[in-house]
């Protein structure tokens, strides 16, 4: 059936929920592009010799054309949805992605991510007074300036704004400024303790 | 959360995964003319051409584009799940029907069928509406009131649109609960990170075993 492989790509994306990216299926994309090429060449060759009244040939051309457009749609949707996932990850994971996600991206997607990072950083630098506003912070309205946190895993040393160095060992508790540790909490390294 | 309204969340969008999958559902078609060299689409014959009068089940996107234009290549018939027999089942009791089995995109695909201008268009449209109305109450009830009960048996009968509604309802309930217990003040690990970590732990543990 026409455009089966393209549909496999779509199903693959639909199956994986947020949090990971499946590996870039370059193989399947190549197969889809080959199918498009075959259909296109068949159409081009038949169109050269088709006369006006030959309904069967014209119907075949229309059918193949529909197949080409369907393949195109599936490919574009695959690429677009992957980029959307990557964009969402920038806001969740921060500017450095985990290694296995990076491994699953193709070269162009990695470039796109870097450019998006740069764009976002430039924008954040330009708004708000004195040096810019970090939009990826304060995802929930802040209730206090300092927060009590517990460390969930060994994360090494952490330097606060006023210069004190804190060792983040598992299960140690600290009283830190909210703005500094928010991104560590979002990444799951620290845990916010509420009384 | 930045830009929740993206080009693929709208189900009518070109890039929407749901729309692509829903338009893959099959419709029964009869070919009015011969089609040269496309005989491989018909598994039951070995002709090079599709003979006029062949009946095939084509995916919706193909049927729609062949139906366009003055040249009538195919005649489209209503799919089995939207015919009179099933419509009577839906009107009798919408709540017992397993919509997930009848095509996981029952409503989306039904909406697309309307655009084909089949003879029983009005009946299909009214049955879609009535089925949804009939089932909505239970969906709302289930998602809003049962915190710890396992609802997989109910959810498994719902189609994709209804599942979205159901999870939105549950999300609303959880958010309200968190607000009541002041847990919403607590900064938390983002869900993406949590899922990612769980999957990584699972993969690592299965690799080591």
From TrEMBL, chain A:
How does it associate, per the subunit comment? Component of the GINS complex.
Q: Where is the GINS subunit domain?
A: 56-127
Its function, per the record, reads: Required for correct functioning of the GINS complex, a complex that plays an essential role in the initiation of DNA replication, and progression of DNA replication forks. GINS complex is a core component of CDC45-MCM-GINS (CMG) helicase, the molecular machine that unwinds template DNA during replication, and around which the replisome is built. Required for correct functioning of the GINS complex, a complex that plays an essential role in the initiation of DNA replication, and progression of DNA replication forks. GINS complex seems to bind preferentially to single-stranded DNA.
GO BP: DNA strand elongation involved in mitotic DNA replication
Q: Where is the DNA replication complex GINS protein PSF1 C-terminal domain?
A: 143-194
GO cellular-component term (any): GINS complex
Per the record, the similarity remark reads: Belongs to the GINS1/PSF1 family.
Q: Which residues form a coiled coil?
A: none
Task: Tell me which CDD domains the record gives.
Answer: GINS_A_psf1, GINS_B_Psf1
Mind listing the UniProt keywords for this protein, alphabetically?
Chromosome, DNA replication, Nucleus
Protein known as: DNA replication complex GINS protein PSF1
A Pfam family for this UniProt protein?
Sld5
Q: Where in the cell is it found?
A: Chromosome; Nucleus
Q: Which domain of life is it from?
A: Eukaryota
UniProtKB/TrEMBL annotation, chain B:
Question: Which function does this protein serve?
Answer: Required for correct functioning of the GINS complex, a complex that plays an essential role in the initiation of DNA replication, and progression of DNA replication forks. GINS complex is a core component of CDC45-MCM-GINS (CMG) helicase, the molecular machine that unwinds template DNA during replication, and around which the replisome is built.
Q: Does the keyword Ribosomal protein apply?
A: no
Q: Where would I find the DNA replication complex GINS protein PSF3 N-terminal domain in this sequence?
A: 15-66
Mind giving the lineage of the organism this protein is from?
Eukaryota, Metazoa, Spiralia, Lophotrochozoa, Mollusca
- Which Gene Ontology CC terms are recorded? GINS complex
Please give the start and end residues of each transmembrane region: none
The entry sums up its family as follows: Belongs to the GINS3/PSF3 family.
Question: Which compartments is it annotated to reside in?
Answer: Nucleus
Quaternary organization = Component of the GINS complex.
GO biological-process terms attached to the record: mitotic DNA replication initiation
Tell whether Nucleus is among the UniProt keywords: yes
What positions does the domain GINS subunit occupy? 84-180
Keywords (alphabetical) are:
DNA replication, Nucleus
InterPro entries named in the record: GINS_A, GINS_bundle-like_dom_sf, GINS_Psf3, GINS_Psf3_sf, PSF3_N
**By what name is this protein known?**
DNA replication complex GINS protein PSF3
Q: Which Pfam families does its entry note?
A: PSF3_N (PF22466), Sld5 (PF05916)
> What does the record list as coiled-coil region(s)?
none
